[in-house]
Amino acid sequence: MCGPVARRVDQEGRMPQPAITGGFESLRKKILIVDDDTGLRQLIVEGLSNSDYDIAEAESGTEAIRKIGEQAYDLVITDMMMPGMSGMELLTRIREVEPETAVLVITAYPATHLAVTAMKKGAVDFLAKPFDIDTLLFKIDVSLQETAISKNGVQARGAEPIQLVNKKEELSLKSYIYENIENASGGNDQIFQKIVDMSMQVVDGESGALLLYDEDEKLFHPQVIKSGDVQDYLDKKLPFLTKLFLEVVEKREAVVAKSGEKGEFLPTVICAPLMIRNRVFGVLTVKKDSRGPGVSRNDLRHIQSLTNRASLNLENKVLYESLYINLIETFKSLVASIQLRDHYTEEHSYRVMELSLAVADAMGCRESELESLKIAAILHDIGKIAIPDSVLLKPGRLSDDEYAIIKTHPAIGDSILQFMVIFGNERNIILHHHERWDGRGYPDGLAGEDIPLLSRILCAVDAYDAMTNTRPYREAMKVEDAVVELLRNRNTQFDEKVVDCLVKLVLRQSR
Ligand SMILES: [Fe+2]
Predict the structure, then answer these.
(1) Which of 134, 375, 414, 507 has the most Cβ atoms closer than 10 angstroms to its Cβ?
(2) How far away, in angstroms, is 404 Cα from ligand 1 center?
């Protein structure tokens, strides 16, 4: 096997336009953003700052027309509602003076009918507010490609219809990559598997691998290997590829190499970086069949689309997860402090969580419901933070007024979490964890199946855990006695299906 013969491929930021030096032309596109709203304009410019486009701005239709007169733009992104010249008028003027410039219109959601009119007048696409930059980037990419397709189509005058069909296919392949990566679910391992599978699928590869990069040790750790003989891949191909991977890391760009196998010298290997915040955390490599035509520009484009989409997705996932974990940890310490004050052991909420999850799982709850219950069970009594010591720690019987104060804790818990949009489901479970099956609970007096199932589960498990653990004012009950108590309150305090499931589980555990 010969050493790698690599060729550079331009790749900067998240939205690169692939080009092999000496072979394909550079595709840096010019985009003009037109919006009278400076804030939104800046937001778009900022969102595109990492992309490989030349960006210009105009705050009115008139300024846009002046700029278009000075130089040609590949794409104009314009708001529809602007004082003076509207987006629609601007579109008409552009069609007159620069018919080849693509126009993408932005419209407020209730005015999407305007977007349809705009498309009839020649806009390539529209974007309804509010939108995220990710969607805008995708639409820009597709709009620019569509324009290229129609230009080539006009030039071809029907002489090469196949070429046009291929390009349309290429475009839908790009959409396919985008959607598949967007919808990739599961843990990182599953996402990595999907990235390799898709890369082999889109370029018709015979083998593929994804390796994570250890920056400190400068080592590559294989995560996914798709090859006929994995051991052979690890022993023979990987050492050869490592030089190439290091080049990818150093350049932070995709690299194409000749495999040199069987004396053939076609470029058949593509290696592309996976990056988070501009740092390479992994490398994707795909090898095409040495007997085939080798790596094409389209192959490169697809692999780059794939790695860029995947990188962005993983970055969002990592950010979300770390934010989420931080938030949960903050709440956990808050809960721990309440439980210390209440002389309740910190393990209470964890025991409640584990047993609730076991009951919910046995009752056939979905994975997403289990995730919500896990959080809700830990945080269910977070509202007790607002209950004064004189009430919360009172050893004797509570007066009606004191009991009324205690009864506010689910609603307080709900309001503590109200600003966390991501805790919508958890808030609902917490709010209703003291409702009773017979409707005599609090805060809303919901009855039967009007009470969320996960709240009914949490309610019974919470009561069971309180009964079977020592409190300052009484000794722990035996499991059998607590079971009797649960059964006695079937269909009054507790949902009988929940009780039956819970009893079965705790009796099995106690044996
Ligand atoms: Fe509670």
Answers:
(1) 375
(2) 13
The single residue listed with the structure tokens 């205690």 is 406
Calculate the dihedral angle through the C-alpha atoms of 445, 447, 450, 453, rounding to the nearest 10 degrees.
Answer: 100
Inter-residue contact 464 to 507 (CB < 8 Å):
no
What DSSP character marks residue 234?
I
For the domain spanning 29-159, the CATH number is 3.40.50.2300
| CATH homologous superfamily, domain 183-316 | GAF domain (3.30.450.40)
Dist. CA 65 → ligand 1 center (Å): 64
Distance 293 CA to ligand 1 centre (A): 67
| Residue 469, token pair as written in the block | 């653990």
Domain 342-510 has CATH 1.10.3210.10: yes
In sequence order, the β-bridge partners of residue 102 are 75
DSSP string, 293-309: ----HHHHHHHHHHHHH
List the domain boundaries for the chain.
29-159, 183-316, 342-510
Same topology for domains 183-316 and 342-510, yes or no?
Answer: no
Q: Where are the beta strands (DSSP E) in 122-177?
A: 125-129
* 496 token code pair: 């009988």
- How far is the centre of ligand 1, averaged over its atoms, from the C-alpha of 504 (Å)? 24
**413 CA → ligand 1 middle, Å:** 9
Phi then psi for residue 510, to 5 deg, are -80, -10
Ligand 1 geometric centre to CA of 368 (Å): 23
List the shell of residues around ion ligand 1, using CB closer than 5 Å.
381
d(CA 375, ligand 1 centre) in Å: 14
Q: What is the pTM of this model?
A: 0.47
| Separation between Cα atoms, residue 338 and residue 89, nearest integer Å | 62
